[in-house]
Request: fold
Amino acid sequence: MKICVYSSYAWIKIANNYGSILQYFALQTYLEKQGHNVFWLRFNPPNKKTFKYIIANFLLKRKDRNRDYQHQNLQGFQEFENNYLHETPLEYHSYSQLKKNPPKADIYITGSDQVWAGLSPERYLKFAPKDSIKISYAASFGSPKTGILNKILFTWRLKNINSISVRERIGIEYCKNFKRNDAVWVCDPSLLLEKSEYETFLENEPAIDSPYIFTYWVNPIQNLNYIYWKEITNYAKNNNLGTITTAIQGAEFAFDSNKLKSPNPLEWLKLIHDAKYVITSSFHGVAFSIVMKTPFLVIPQTGNSAAENLRFYDLLNSLGLTNRIFNKHETLKEQLESPIDWNKVTVNINTLRNVSFDFLKKAIEE
Reply:
C-alpha cells in the first residue's frame, strides 16, 4: 500500500525537536518492514498568527507558547531528512494548496505527536480523497479538550477518520465524548521498533569514551532550581560522571549556550544509547531511554507546559516504571541508582506493541 503520513513536519522546521522527527522515522521504518511504501507529508504553512488563530486560542482557552527560540541544528536535521526520510516531492504551504493537489496514496495517516492540539482540517485528513482509508495513529490531543465548544468541533472533525487510535489513555475518554467509541490506545511510534533495530542506524556514530549523564530538556524553564540542576551536577561530580545537555524550545535560555550540545537526530539517539543515565523533562526522552534500556529519571514540567506531563505518566504507569518520576522527598542518588527490571519492562512493552501492531494491520486492511 502507498501510505501518506501527516505529522509534525512543520514543527521540525521551527525547533530541533528530536522526538518529532524520530517518531516519524520509526513509523516509516515499521510500515516499510510490513511491505508498504511510506512518505511524510511536507506541510509547512507560514508561522504566523492569523486572526482566526487568535480567536480560536481565545475561545478554546489555549495558551500560546513562547516562540522566540530558533532551530539550533537545521543542517543536521535536513541531512537526516535527506538520508533517511521519505517525503512528498512538493512542500505544501497552505491547506487550499493541499486540498487542490493532494499527494496520491491509498491510505492517509495522521499522528503521532500533538496532531489534534488544533482543529485545522489537514490534521484530520480532510484533504484526502473520500474513497481513501484515513487512520489516526497514536494521535495526541495535547492540552485538555473539555467544554461544549470542543465537543461540537472535535465531533465534527473526527467523523472524517475511519480508524482511530490515540497515544494517551485520556484520549479514549475524549473520543467517547466526541462520539467515537471505537478509539484504541496504542504506543507512540518510537516504541514500535526494538533497540536492535535502532542500533543498525547507529553503527557509524562515534562513542564518547568517558561515562556521562545525558540531560534533555524541552520548553521554557523558569530557573534551574525547577529541574534540580545543582543536585544533578553535584551527583555527576561526586560519581566522576560528565554531563552532556541538550535543551530546546525555550529551555536553552536557562543555560549557558556554550555548555549545550545540539546534535543531529542520530547523534541524539546515540547519546541516549551510550549514557550512564538520562535525566529529562521530555516524553520522547523517556520513550527512547526505555527502548535503549538506559536508566533514566524524568522531572515533570511546570507552568504552561505541565499538561504535557500526562504523556509520560500514562507510559510509565503502563510499564510499571512510575518510580522513575522524580520525587523531591528522595535523594537523586536513590532514584537514579534504583534498579530497573528490564525483562519485566520488555514484557509490558511487547503487550502494548502487539495491540499497536494489531490496530495498524486491521486499519490498513479495512
